[in-house]
Amino acid sequence: MASEIPEKQWAQVIEKTGGPVEYKQIPVRKPGPDEVLVNIKFSGVCHTDLHAVNGDWPLPTKLPLVGGHEGAGIVVAKGDLVNDIEIGDHAGVKWINGSCLGCDFCQQSDEPLCAKALLSGYTVDGTFQQYCIAKAAHVARLHKDIPLDAVAPVLCAGITVYKGLKESGAKPGQTVAIVGAGGGLGSLAQQYAKAMGLHTIAIDSGEEKRKMCLEQLGSNAFVDFATSKDVVKDVQAATEDGLGPHAVILVAVNEKPFQQAAEYVRPRGTVVCIGLPANAYLKAPVFESVIKMITIKGSYVGNRKDSAEALDFFRRGLIKSPFKVIGLSELQKVYDLMHKNQIAGRYVLDMEK
User: Fold this and answer.
1) Is the pTM of this model over 0.70?
2) CA nearest 136: which of 180, 175, 98, 177?
3) Which residues form the Enoyl reductase (ER) domain (predicted)?
4) Is the per-residue pLDDT at 2 higher than 70?
5) Which of 68, 118, 142, 282 lies in disulfide reach of 98, CB 3.0 to 4.6 Å?
6) Are the C-beta atoms of 71 and 93 separated by less than 8 Å?
7) Gyration radius from the chain CA atoms
8) Mean pLDDT for the chain?
9) ∠ CA 42-114-347, rounded to 5°
10) Residue range 243-281, pLDDT digits in tens
11) Is 342 exposed, middle or buried (0-12, 13-18, 19+ CB in 10 A)?
12) Which residues fall within 8 angstroms of residue 11, CB to CB, at 6 or more apart?
């Protein structure tokens, strides 16, 4: 262990389900044989982190819990078995903190489906702390020319939407609708779609998000679900032939958009569900779904290869995450804005503030 690593650190800790988060000092842990200790410099704040506070997913959380799973920083210590990443290297701590590496899913590059997967900021302590433990096999390798504040949101939001776009099967020149386009995931999904040669229809509400989607993120059309008299018709009308998008990427945090997507996707289209509204259900009209031969599927986070690909898009300058930096001590303010659905882009926490 390096001598400059402190014994105590600042962190945001959930002591009980429902919160609030408590900003306080906790011990710095030492990495196990197959783990690394990452000095987190910046961490994005994802809507999943709010679910961890509220405990409203059917998945038990560790308590007390340090949330967060979009942490970018520097490796400062490592276990004896770690030989493919060095102290001083830049690394990202993602949602998948570790997996068994030996089950059928891990062997087929589906490690997010591993029954023993460790989830940062949910089943193990995450990145809302200055020093975070993760399995060496799963930390993202970050080139040192990548700014750590800007890349933080890519470590979950970017990788997740990139995986969803791959799962959609949409081809260059085709159109995807992105529902929840103005949020952290949606703002990145538009850019990945554009970089992959896809046309995009952004679906969200509000003038700020409309301007961001059309003027900054390159979407071809914007449908405001709050002011539209018929969302289904408006989305279909935004495509050149009026038949609707070839795929729909759902990153919304409410249930209703999940019910509409099957209605406006084109025949043979694919609806990809990524967002996880609490206690929500998928519903689709059986008749239209059958005669249109649509596909409805879920897409979880990306595997390690997806992560490397998504990060390469970012490194080449094709992805720019709209974000605002605030201090780690101000995390509760972000959660308050999430409750009000008032966040455009992503908030990133500076661990030194």
Assistant:
1) yes
2) 98
3) 18-349
4) no
5) 118
6) yes
7) 20
8) 92
9) 20
10) 999 999 999 878 888 989 999 999 999 999 998 887 888
11) exposed
12) 23, 24, 25, 26, 66, 128, 129, 130, 328
